[in-house]
Amino acid sequence: MPAVCHTRLTDAGCWLPEAGDDKLFWLIGFEANRHWAPTMRAIGKHEWLEGGAEYEKYKSAGARRKLEGDIVAEMDAIFATKPLEEWGPLFDAEGVWWCPVQDPEEVAADEQAIAAGACVSPSAGRQPTCRFVCTAALLSALCSLLVRSEPW
Questions:
Q1: Lowest-confidence region among 21-35, 44-58, 65-79, 134-148
Q2: How many CB atoms lie within 10 A of CB 133?
Q3: Which of 7, 19, 87, 115 is the most buried (most CB within 10 A)?
Q4: Phi, psi of 60 (to 5 degrees)
């Protein structure tokens, strides 16, 4: 299955590729010049960094922008070669900004998500027996409660 979406590789934003075990992950704040070299080292594309004249097209952000579709397709194919549990240490070793995309069960068990109010429990005052991830409408309402009209 192809990745759900891609932002432009040269924009500061997020990119959502898929690992070989069908787990999605974020490449966070991927900036064309700042994150290119560490990401290429992490995925083993050293020739895109150090190759000869035939790799000149990868040397500048402007040149890569013109090849964006091809680069994303090739990187997606590379990401599909390993499960996420193998990519994580490679990204961490190179300082690549990334994080896994959690499924609803993982979010419902995530202490930070629970503390942030991202989950509800239909316990009616009793000990919670289960948790559910809030719907977008509930999260939107929660966010509006957290917005302050005056500065901190």
A1: 134-148
A2: 19
A3: 87
A4: -125, 155
In the three-class reduction of DSSP (H, G, I as helix; E, B as strand; rest coil), residue 104 is classed as: helix
The residue among 109, 25, 134, 130 whose CA lies nearest residue 75 is: 25
**DSSP output for 34-85:** TTHHHHHHHHT-THHHH--GGGGGGSSHHHHHHTHHHHHHHHHHHHTTS-HH
Distance CA 44, CA 54 (A): 17
Question: pLDDT tens digits for 73-130?
Answer: 999 999 999 999 999 999 999 999 998 988 888 888 888 888 888 877 776 666 666 7
Task: Kindly report the pTM of this predicted structure.
Answer: 0.71
Is the backbone of residue 29 left (phi > 0), alpha (psi -120 to 50) or beta? left
pLDDT in tens, 119-149: 777 766 666 667 777 766 454 555 554 444 4
Q: Per-domain residue ranges for the chain?
A: 14-100, 104-146
